[in-house]
Amino acid sequence: MAETLALVAGGRRLEAVWHGPPPDAAPTLILLHEGLGCVAGWRDFPAALAETTGLGVLVYSRAGYGGSDPVPLPRPLRYMHEEGLVVLPEVLAAARVENAILVGHSDGGSIALIWAGGTSGGPRRVGLVLMAPHVVCEDRSIDGIEAARAAYNHGDLRARLSRLHGDNVDCAFWGWNGAWLDPAFRKWDIREYLAAIDIPALLIQGTDDPYGTIAQVDAIRAGVSGRCDVLALEGCGHAPWKERPSEVRDAVRTFVSAQTSTAGASATDDARR
Predict the structure, then answer these.
(1) DSSP strands (E only) in the chain
(2) Is the dihedral of CA 211, 109, 35, 21 positive or negative?
(3) pLDDT of residue 6
(4) N or C: which end of the chain has fewer CB within 10 A?
(5) Residue 15's closest CA among 118, 122, 114, 95?
(6) 216 near 205, Cβ under 8 Å?
(7) pLDDT over 90 (residue 47)
């Protein structure tokens, strides 16, 4: 059963929902949405993950998205740094997460990497699941985001996003779109955080992603010090969890089962010492 949470992080109220067992009973999957996502945008994926893995699932809308508090525009070009280094640690503390597996999609994947490589303390770091992550700004990313701007201004994208974000729709879209299309964002690069990441990661990338290429996955594999498993999905676009749900759920279940078994053994060894 889903439970609505009252979370405050970064000085703003955040919409949040919990699925599955509480944090003191099982590790927690923390879902970090894409640049146009929110709690509602994940559809039934959080509940399905809780059922499939037997773990707790925390899903929240970042400020400026869904039912969370709005933020002023334009967003700073380091908005993902702020989310990973400041806001996410506060979310984890407020939700009393003890063992964390971050599941990030697109911008959410980048935020997960910044958190994993740029912060210390907090819950035990069990693993990362990154779907269509990005660590540098590619030409394909810009092309896709320019196409999204045209669809928002001249097509039905705004109407569709309004169903998810309500009064936050312009805040959500222009905060993301404006930052990525700022000429200075071409220099955006978070590879400096990778070397400090020593926890296992599962990277999931669609070969037909209009926002990024397999080069993003290659850069992560080359940069981190922990083990990386890669699931490349032929013919899949930017949202593997939505386009290929059964394959993604199976891969996540297998990955987290291995990591939680290892984490449990490590915790037992620590207690015996």
Answers:
(1) 3-9, 12-19, 28-32, 56-60, 99-105, 124-131, 201-206, 228-233
(2) positive
(3) 87
(4) C
(5) 95
(6) yes
(7) yes
Domains of the chain plus CATH, in order, are: 3-272 (3.40.50.1820)
Tally of residues, the chain = 273
Question: 108-157: per-residue pLDDT in tens?
Answer: 999 999 999 999 999 999 999 999 999 999 999 999 999 999 999 999 99
Higher pLDDT, 265 or 27: 27
Q: What's the chain's Rg over C-alpha atoms?
A: 17
pTM of the model as a whole: 0.95
State how far the Cα of 176 lies from the Cα of 184, in Å rounded to an integer. Answer: 14
- Partners of 222 in beta bridges: none
What is the average pLDDT across 167-182? 98
Contact of 126 with 252, CB cutoff 8 Å: no
Classify burial at 195, counting beta carbons within 10 Å of its beta carbon; exposed 0-12, middle 13-18, buried 19 or more.
Answer: exposed
| Cβ-based neighbours of 75, under 8 Å, separated by 6 or more | 64, 175, 176, 178, 179
Locate 46 and state its tokens.
């959080």
CA distance 121 to 149: 39
Q: What is the Cα–Cα distance from 31 to 131, expressed in whole angstroms?
A: 11
Cβ pair 134, 216 in contact under 8 A = yes
Residues in a beta bridge with 210: none
Residues with Cβ within 8 Å of 139's Cβ and at least 6 positions away in sequence, in order, are none
